[in-house]
Amino acid sequence: MFAVVKTGGKQYRVAPGDIIIVERLLGDAGAKIKLDQVLMVGEDGKAPEVGAPLIGDAAVNCEIIDQSRADKILVFKKKRRQGYKRTKGHRQDQTVLRVLDINGRGAVKPAAQKAAKPAEDAKPTETGTEATAGDALVQTAAPTKKKAATKKKAASKKKAATKKKAAAKKSTTKK
Fold first, then answer.
1. Which residues, in sequence order, are CB contacts of 1 under 8 Å at separation 6+?
2. What confidence tens digit (pLDDT) does each residue in 136-164 have?
3. In the chain, N or C: fewer CB atoms in 10 Å?
4. To 5 degrees, how large is the angle CA 168–CA 173–CA 174?
């Protein structure tokens, strides 16, 4: 199974599992993205389906692996015998994508993911009461508040110590 997609003014032939580098797309690493400008979908051994210019209901699902920048390209201009030279550099923003699957006419749909059972999420505790997601949030929120309070106290102590040192230095310089 393969598809030809258009993104960033360029065309790419992709198959599930491929890793491609394209022009910068919005999103963070780990986010899912859908490329919906599909020009052609085909399967090995069969005639490919070609759009005019696009296949309407086809899409390629991808995962963003990385947001980075390409290698530097030097742009050098010179006019001979005129003493004119200019050098500039450019680094293009790029996105690294992993193709997850191809959806559309003639394409194989991926298997549906199993839904999480709610009975497994709410397991009874030793006392016989059911734990909820809200209880977990309360338990994890309390230690972070304590850490923030201790950080504030430490910062205020440091400020007081620096003020005392500055005052001691001024008094010694005046004598």
1. 15, 16, 41, 42, 43, 44, 102, 107, 108
2. 444 444 455 555 566 666 666 666 777 66
3. C
4. 100
Determine how β-strand 73-79 pairs with β-strand 2-7: unpaired
DSSP, res 54: -
- Going by their DSSP bridges, the two strands 84-90 and 73-79 should be labelled as antiparallel
Cα first-last separation, the chain: 86
Print the domain residue range for 23: 2-108
| Residue corresponding to tokens 């209880």 | 135
For residues 131 and 118, is the Cβ–Cβ distance under 8 A?
no
Domain count, the chain: 1
CA–CA separation, 160 and 72 (whole Å): 48
Report which of 19, 6, 9 is spatially closest to residue 68, judged by C-alpha positions: 19
DSSP alpha helix (H) spans, the chain: 118-121, 133-174
Relative to beta strand 10-14, strand 84-90 is unpaired
Residue 102 within any structural domain of the chain: yes
Condensed to tens digits (0 to 9), the pLDDT of residues 76-116 reads 999 999 999 999 999 999 999 999 999 865 555 555 555 55
